Amino acid sequence: MTPLVLSLALVACSESEFDPRNPARGPGSAAGDGSAVSTGEFVGGTDALPAALPVEPPQGSAVPDCGAECLTFCDAQNLENPVHQGLCTSLWGVGLEPQPIYANEACRRLFVDVVGRFPTRGEVNRSCAGKSWDEVVNALLDSEAFVEGNQRWWADKFLYNTRALSIERIYDMDALVGKLYRGQVAYDHFAAIASAHPVLTRRHDTAGDRAEALFHLFMGRPPLGSERSDLARLYALWTNGYYDHPTLGMRLSDAYIRYRCVDDEGQIDPNSRGECTSILYGYNELILSPDVRADGEDGQMWSGLLRADEWEKLQIPGRLLARQQAFWETAVDQVIQRYLGYDLGTMVPEVRQALVRHLLRYNGDIRAVHHAILTSVAYLQTARGLTDTDHRWTFGPLKQVDAEVWLDSIKHTLDYDLSRCDHRISDPRDLLNADSISAIALLESSDWEMRDDGEDVRRDYSDLARNLGGCPANEVGGRFKIVSILTTATQLNFVNQVCDPAGARGDGAAIEGLLPPDVHPDAAVTPALAQSILEHQIERFYGRPMTDDERAMATTHGDTCERALCRAAEFARPSCFALLSSSEMLFY
User: What are the start and end residues of every segment in region (Disordered) (predicted)?
Assistant: First the structure.
């Protein structure tokens, strides 16, 4: 590196500027000026739902046929929610009725999807009872939990890995995602920045790989051969390299610019300029001219030295895709899939079209789509019970929770001593081995928790989560969900550790959390006390009241326990094991 370029690099990463509590460096930091993309006051959350048109509903899997009467009926409803607008001609207008959800079940589902864990009965009452559903959804969409959950979702999409990517770039993209879900950056602007962000360009080896990754992220499919090769020309300037961080004392992976399609004087080369030009979406040339920032014989430049106007020019790939209808359709399809667990946009294309119009109405504020789906009848249906039809939108979603949801629910509900992992830092050992005060300070300000001896981070949470598909290191693959002998054994072993049903370990959850407040652990169990203990745990773990069947079961076991002279603790710990290992803690 030339002395001038070296001095520029040192200035860019100088210790006076580097803040281990906020190490973000990159194009995302400059995005958004703090103003809102939209008002954030989204319509559609207070629709009055109609009764189904009194006609013979379609049977089996037959495609509903909305005739003139159906269309007239739906037009007359004046529905504001785009999901309802699109769904009417395949639901109420053809004589089909949805299955309304119970309030407790709805609140529990929303907590998992937005907050990232199951609520207790007390939280259900405080957050949902006595409020309109629109108020409940808006309050949670305004929470930091909503932002953090979406940051983790995009971390999975981008495959954050601190050995493949600079930690500064990861933090920068994470901050950009935060701006997106606070309504400070429009979705098409976000995609443009992401298309030229080192988190994407450095994560993949070739120009074609980068083009393909962009298609997967924002078009929901692999590119055709012509699309891949054409878009790859706009990624021809990117290459992979490393830089030495003077404050962290680490060598970090990062993206570099190699000057292509220019001659020895740095002018556009007419013989090779086509290699840097996309023609599939109009004529789009992407060529940068080298200057003193270019280093050595290769003429490469570290991306950390790019100017704002150069970053903007490099974002052409994302802006080109954002002009396509399929780009916006993919944006809403991804939100549909996350909340409903099935592809409603393909089954009922009118829903997808209405949501795209809704998103554009709010200037690309992606929160509008989240609000529309979370307040829609498609979301607010129960998955319990049989239906008279095979149409998927006539009953609610049933999904498997992520590993972090399950662990965080247990940790929160029982105040159980369990650490966390940080989606931005895949392997904290790299920071620990850096022998730098700033590296340790960065780690301590993250979600990783240091051990008492200060020699390493706590790995109780991450080791368990990674066995269950969560907290991915993203070295090769990412997150996974599976029900298998291995995962079931892992879950049962952890629940056994937490609940300590035999009362022999002594390191389980505090017994006070498993018993009602006024019950002593040594109290003699009676059928009435057994009911009280089980009701307390169901309300804490499941966030709902106890059913009649559960009450009868508690009475039966309480009677058996009374004759065996059981203590309250001896009843509460096996009860905890039974509840936490049930399917209701794994699916919602």
Answer: 17-37
